[in-house]
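hey m, so remember when u said the tokens were messed up on ur end? i reran from scratch. heres the input so u can diff it against urs
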Amino acid sequence: MKKKSISIITKIMLVMAVVVCSITMTKTSETHANNLRVGDVLGNVLNTDIRVFIDDVQIMGYNIGGWTYVVAEELAAYGFAVHWNPTARTLEINRGASILQPQHVPANLAPIGSIAFPFLHTDIVTHVRTGSGLLPIHSYNINGRTVVRIDDVAQHFGTIHWNPTARQLRVTTTPITPVPPIGNLTPPTAQNI
């Protein structure tokens, strides 16, 4: 009988130790996440051979954690309105008429998977405007610019297709009727972010 009592007590102690460790680890993770400062390095952008297109026009893509990101400010050249609010520190992406011309996208000559540069924590909150209102999307800072996951953009403004043979990610946007811009829709630059 004594062996069973010790065994049960040991099991209870073990369960309590696991619970205490779990709570401690969760609190440590939450504290670390809450202590992030603007500019803290979160990881590295990796070089990729994946080519990204929006409505058959190539845009530079970046690999962060296995996801493909694009520079939010560059979306203005691909049929999107990008609005920077410096007071609220928000970046809003919506469908709108193009106000810029897409830039030439150079071929990536670096080894695939090698480190390109770091990506950083930012206090800028990026949203997409949908019929349901503003929805936050994943974003980071690279070299003073905001990058967003291309999947988030496609989910709200069109469709996305991955061609593994061609190593291409293609977004086809839903056609819209352009509306006149309201206010200043100048994309943010590294100088005003």
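this time it looks ok to me. The radius of gyration is 22 Å. if urs says something different then somethings off w ur setup not the seq
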